[in-house]
Every structure is written in structure tokens, then in C-alpha cells.
Design a protein that fits this description.
287 residues, mainly alpha, MetI-like fold, 2 domains, 14 helices, 71% helix
Length: 287
């Protein structure tokens, strides 16, 4: 009986915590569907005090633009995540092999870049002058292909895989690529799914790369940067004296932007949630 009471209490506690986590999401959706003046008067409510879809109508007045931005963001997220996972896992596998002569030196090199980097100006010059990636979709992908923190996480996970499995594969005649593809990757799905989710969120939420490397080419605007540009235009219009009597969405537009930007990515978690809990222990056990 005490065990049942304790289990019921834990379940109730997590149900309450889950509901509390939903409240901010509900507030954002409610605010995006409320009239601007009502938010100023009554503040945020769990249910719209006066329903209005004006913020969404304003943001979606040109649906082709936002659909194109969704397309750019989806392409960047899918291609960037796939390439980043592939490159990071290959590098992490090399660093995890105890028979690799320069394992320590390369591991230190990867770790060192977490503490010091070349800075914004050299990075910009490399991207635009050396690689000539300015105003191209690859400028939104290449800078995040190798993230040192993710490489070290995967390396830690790979080191926990028994060496005997690799030795058995070598005895059977498998090469390094075959071992990586047929032994390491299948055993590392929790780690790959967890790191993959972080990479997806990084690419999906990024707007800074577009600010740096995309200029005057709206067809390459990702979703986050497009919404950022719309918000800047709104603030500029509202600051003009001639717009004093014009009703423009402000806080409601911000909330509608949050719904449009974060809504789709929430479903990405559904595909990796069964691996995510196991992946949270990534690196907690040293092999």
C-alpha cells in the first residue's frame, strides 16, 4: 500500500508539472488570438477576452512569402541536420578509437575550439571571400556542420561500446566504414537521436546566419529571419508620426510569430521521444 501511495503521488506530481508547462503555450496562443487593445487593458488570459485573428491576417497577408520561408527553413534543417550528424559522428568515431595514434591531439583540438574561436570577422571573411557562400542557402548550413560539444558527446557515447564488438567485426573481415555503419550507428541511436534533436532546434531557430550572409535576396530568408524582419518593419511603422491613428498588431503579432515559428518544430520531438530519455544520460557513465 505505501508503494502504491508513493507511486500515485509521483504520478500526480508529474501531471501537475506537465500542466504547468502547458500554461505558457496556452497563454501565447490565447494572446495571438486576442485584440491588441484588450491585451493592453486586461493583460494575458488563458482564453481570449475578445477574439481577433488580425495578427495572423497581417502576418499571412502574403502567404507565398511565408510558405517560401518555411521551405527554406525545412530544407536547411533537414539537409543541415543530416550532414551535421554524419560529419560529427564520423569525427566522433575516429576520436573514440583507442588505437588511433593522434586521438588525444585531435580531441584537444576539438575541445579548444569550444573555448576560443577566430571571431566574427574572420568567419565572415572565410564564408564570403574564400568559400564564396554569401547569398546562398549553403551559408545557412555550413557554419553549424561541426559543433564541438556534439562531437564530444558522441565520442563519449561511442567509447562505451565494447571493443570486443569491433574486434569481432574485424575478424569477420569488416572494414572501418562497415564497422561504423553496421555496428556503431545501430547501437548509438539514442545518442544520435538526442544530438539530432538539438541540431534540428539549432537550425530551425537560427536567424543570425541569414542576418550575416543573406542580403537583398528575400527568397533565401528562413522563417525565423522573415518573422524578425516583419517585426522590425512593424516597429518602424509604429514609430512614424503618420501611423498614430493606424491600428497595427504589436504584442499579438509577437505571439502569432511565436506560434508560427515553434508550432511545427514541436512535432519533431514526437519522432525521437523514445530515444530522448535514454539519450539524456549521454556521457554520464564513463567507459
Amino acid at each position: 500500500m505505501p508503494d502504491k501511495i508513493a507511486r500515485a503521488f509521483i504520478h500526480l506530481l508529474f501531471i501537475v508539472l506537465s500542466l504547468l508547462c502547458l500554461i505558457p503555450i496556452i497563454l501565447v496562443i490565447s494572446a495571438s488570438l486576442t485584440e491588441e487593445t484588450n491585451i493592453a487593458i486586461h493583460g494575458y488570459t488563458l482564453w481570449p477576452s475578445k477574439f481577433s485573428s488580425f495578427a495572423y491576417e497581417y502576418l499571412l497577408h502574403d502567404p507565398t512569402q511565408i510558405v517560401r520561408a518555411y521551405g527554406v527553413t525545412i530544407f536547411v534543417t533537414v539537409v543541415g541536420t543530416a550532414l551535421s550528424l554524419l560529419i560529427s559522428s564520423l569525427l566522433a568515431y575516429v576520436l573514440s578509437r583507442k588505437d588511433f595514434k593522434f586521438r588525444g591531439a585531435f580531441s584537444f583540438y576539438v575541445f579548444f575550439t569550444m573555448l576560443f574561436n577566430g571571431g566574427l570577422v574572420p568567419t565572415y571573411l572565410v564564408m564570403t571571400k574564400m568559400l564564396h557562400l554569401g547569398n546562398s542557402v549553403w551559408a545557412l548550413i555550413v557554419p553549424y556542420l561541426v559543433m564541438p560539444f556534439f562531437v564530444l558527446l558522441l565520442r563519449t557515447y561511442f567509447t562505451e561500446i565494447p571493443d570486443s564488438l569491433i574486434e569481432c567485426a574485424k575478424i569477420e573481415g569488416a572494414g572501418e566504414i562497415r564497422i561504423f555503419r553496421s555496428v556503431i550507428l545501430p547501437l548509438s541511436l539514442p545518442a544520435l537521436a538526442t544530438v539530432g534533436l538539438f541540431i534540428i532546434l539549432m537550425y530551425w531557430n537560427d536567424w543570425f546566419l541569414a542576418l550575416l550572409y543573406v542580403s537583398g535576396k528575400s527568397s533565401l530568408y528562413p522563417l525565423q529571419y522573415l518573422l524578425y524582419a516583419v517585426m522590425e518593419n512593424l516597429n518602424m511603422i509604429k514609430a512614424m508620426p503618420m501611423a498614430a491613428n493606424v491600428v497595427m498588431p504589436g504584442e499579438t503579432a509577437r505571439m502569432a510569430m511565436a506560434v508560427l515559428a515553434t508550432g511545427p518544430i514541436m512535432f519533431a520531438f514526437l519522432f525521437v521521444q523514445r530515444f530522448f530519455v535514454k539519450g539524456l544520460t549521454l556521457g554520464s557513465i564513463k567507459g
